[in-house]
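User: Please go through the entry that follows and flag anything odd:
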Amino acid sequence: MIVDSHQHFWQVGRFDYPWMSPELGVLYRDYLPAQLEPILKQHGVAKAVLVQASNSLAETHWLLSLADSYSFIAGVVGWVDLTDVGLAQELEVLTANPKFKGVRHLVESEPADDWLAQPGVLHGLQSLSDYGVSYDLLVHTRHLKHARTVAKSFPDLRLVIDHMAKPPIARGETREWAQEIKAVAAFPMFIASYRDWLQKRTIPPGVRKICAPSSSLRVSTLVRDA
């Protein structure tokens, strides 16, 4: 069975999407399950995993409602506030839904590069580990050293590096990224999602073992001809 490990749905204006603007062109429109389902069937993809696009509990519950309505949605990677004192209670509610699989935060939007290593965040990540919930890392090269800190701190926490930490291929500046992603790949709990266009580029030796293919179809429309 083929599973697409990373998909997004959104409705413009429904939630706060800090990365979204009219300048994004093709992405600045609604994307919903009815549009994706026939494309998946056409290509023999049986299931898909939804990933949050807004740091919003309301969006997480909306994604779970979509998962309950569409059988091709295998799971949801939502959002919680890792620094919230009520995090355990929120996880108690969310994990009652079997399609709630993981958490993601838009780390790339945080002004502090070491956000992942801050005490309040680490405390929240411990809660994810306790509840058996995975954590998706939306990061860039500069964040990967802090991802290693997380891995060392929580050996039982499953970690997913989205989009292979977005290697700066267009700028031809992949040397540091390759070094950092290889260091991350040494930890057994990491998986890295990557899109089809990245297969055309060189994935460093030792890193392919942690790769999980994903389409991230909406975003891929911007780079498929690169």
The CA atoms of residues 114 and 146 lie 6 Å apart.
